[in-house]
Amino acid sequence: MMALTSLGNSIGQHDLDEVLQERDKINGLLRENIAGSTLAWGVEVERFEMKDVELPQAMQEVMAMQAQAIRAKRARIIKAEAELEASKKLADAAQQMANNPVAVALRRMQMVTEVGAENNSTTVLMIPSDFVSLSKSLSECLREQKSSGAPSKP
């Protein structure tokens, strides 16, 4: 009876993953717990092993819900780490492309090829990067004029 009580208490203190993965460790803790109590009676416990443990249905459900929550948490962490790694790679790629205009042009041609490989009616309008740079410079110039209070010339 003492073994059953100790077993129930020990399993209740661990989640399902721990019970399944750390069975030997829990067996050792239970053996020590039971041996400590029975030593006063002159009974020495040499070995203790969990086998075919039957848990109440309510406890099984709670442990299953906890295990599901832990798996969902791990999945979110893995996904977040993958997104962080992808964002770092994209930032590196953007930095390399910003420093090399030819790489940008090649990437544009590759994208046009990919779009053209599909049988669709997509229209692609290629704008040279010089126009994009010019519009950015013009926008910055107008913003500076506006903030300095200088009248803009029509």
The percent range for strand residues is under 5%
Largest sheet: none
- Helical proportion? over 70%
Instruction: Kindly state the number of beta strands.
Output: 0
Question: How do the SSEs run, as a string of H and E?
Answer: HHHHHH
Describe this structure in words.
The chain is mostly helical. It has a domain of 54 residues. The protein is 74% helix and 0% strand. The protein has 6 helices and no strands. The termini are far apart.
Note the main attributes of this structure:
154 residues; mainly alpha; 74% helix; elongated
Question: Which helices and strands, and how do they pair?
Answer:
Layout: H1 2-13, H2 16-21, H3 23-38, H4 57-99, H5 101-117, H6 129-148
Structure at a glance:
The protein has 154 residues and is mostly helical.
